[in-house]
Design brief:
Blueprint (H helix, E strand, L loop, with lengths): L14 E5 L2 E8 L9 E4 L10 H7 L5 E4 L16 H16 L3 E6 L1 H12 L4 E7 L13 H7 L9 H13 L3 H11 L2 H11 L8 H8 L7 H10 L6 H7 L4 E6 L7 H11 L4 E5 L5 H4 L1 H16 L6
Parallel strand pairs: 3-4, 3-5, 5-6, 6-7, 7-8
Antiparallel strand pairs: 1-2, 2-4
Helix pairs in contact: 1-13, 2-3, 3-10
């Protein structure tokens, strides 16, 4: 198989912030703007600030831009904790108040979208606006669709199984709760060829899958503590349901959907969001699960236009 050699983009150098005794990595670019809110970009499962490099360079001319590694991912510490939406919500909220120093527009992809929604809904004093890109998280009446579950769904039986399938399904679940099986699965999913295969499923434009991208996803998975994070994300109780969060949401919402995402049915999921937020703005894009990385220029433009359109309504500081 040919490897792609698309031009590599240099990630913006970052620094560390101490949160609850742990090192948290973040990147800052651009200057503070008096009439425009800062942006905070939050990656998905297994990704990091590196995944936003094309957006940081594209947006920092017009905004002060921050990107952060959620605890347990990227260059941030990987302590043995229960990883959940609540933990990441508190991390992002504290980062906004301690480091950014004013309300920010939160933009999140996938699992990061769910974490951003938790902040905007439950810590409204932190959020000037919310941008969700193929956001994860379960609705009350439906099957969960965050990335770890998407991975699990490949090893679990269909929704209405026969009793034999049910039994097998339960034993599959049980097996994956055993430390040895978790270790073996983790060894498997962090291999570069497996990462490439997964990305080929979820990216529409295969030329965006560069060796650099694979290296950026693979590297943190070999950090001390990465296995514990992986196990915790799979086994932690799920956080608050998306519909409950949407009912609490008071800021403006922009949704950007990569329509070719095999993990998320964009049209179906969009209707659910609209039930609770009829005022939202949304765009369906020709991309997969990570539109910000596949079609960064288009995403940057839509994000910029939308933030400028809501900026006059935001009370700064």
């Amino acid at each position: 198989m040919q490897t792609t050699t698309a031009p590599s983009t240099t990630p913006t150098p970052g620094k560390y912030w101490q949160w609850r005794g742990h090192n948290v990595y973040y990147v800052r670019a651009g200057e503070k703007q008096s009439q425009r809110p800062p942006l905070l970009l939050v990656h998905g499962f297994g990704a990091s600030t590196d995944h936003w490099r094309k957006n940081i360079t594209g947006l920092c001319q017009d905004f002060e831009v921050f990107a952060i590694d959620l605890l347990g991912f990227g260059r941030s510490a990987k302590p043995k904790l229960q990883y959940s939406g609540d933990l990441w919500r508190d991390q992002l909220h504290d980062f906004i108040s301690e480091v950014i120093g004013q309300k920010a527009v939160l933009a999140g992809n996938s699992l990061g979208g769910y974490a951003c929604l938790c902040v905007a809904a439950q810590r409204p004093d932190s959020a000037a606006g919310l941008v969700l890109l193929n956001s994860a998280g379960p609705f009350s009446e439906s099957q969960p669709t965050s990335e770890p579950e998407a991975l699990q769904s490949e090893i679990q039986p269909p929704k209405q199984p026969s009793s034999l399938e049910k039994l097998l399904g339960d034993s599959v679940k049980w097996i994956f709760q055993q430390p040895l099986a978790q270790f073996v699965l983790f060894q498997y999913v962090r291999q570069r060829w497996v990462i490439r295969q997964t990305l080929e499923k979820v990216y529409l434009d295969k030329s965006a899958i560069t060796d650099q991208l694979i290296e950026e996803i693979s590297r943190p998975a070999f950090d001390a503590g990465a296995l514990d994070v992986f196990v915790s994300v799979f086994s932690s109780p799920q956080g608050e349901k998306v519909d409950v969060l949407l009912k609490q949401l008071s800021c403006s919402l922009l949704m950007l959907w990569g329509e070719a995402d095999p993990w998320i049915n964009a049209k179906e999921r969009s209707q659910k969001f609209r039930q609770y937020c009829p005022e939202l703005t949304e765009h369906f894009l020709t991309a997969g699960h990570c539109p910000h990385d596949e079609i960064p220029d288009r995403v940057n433009q839509l994000l910029q236009d939308w933030v400028l359109s809501i900026a006059s309504d935001i009370k700064f500081h």
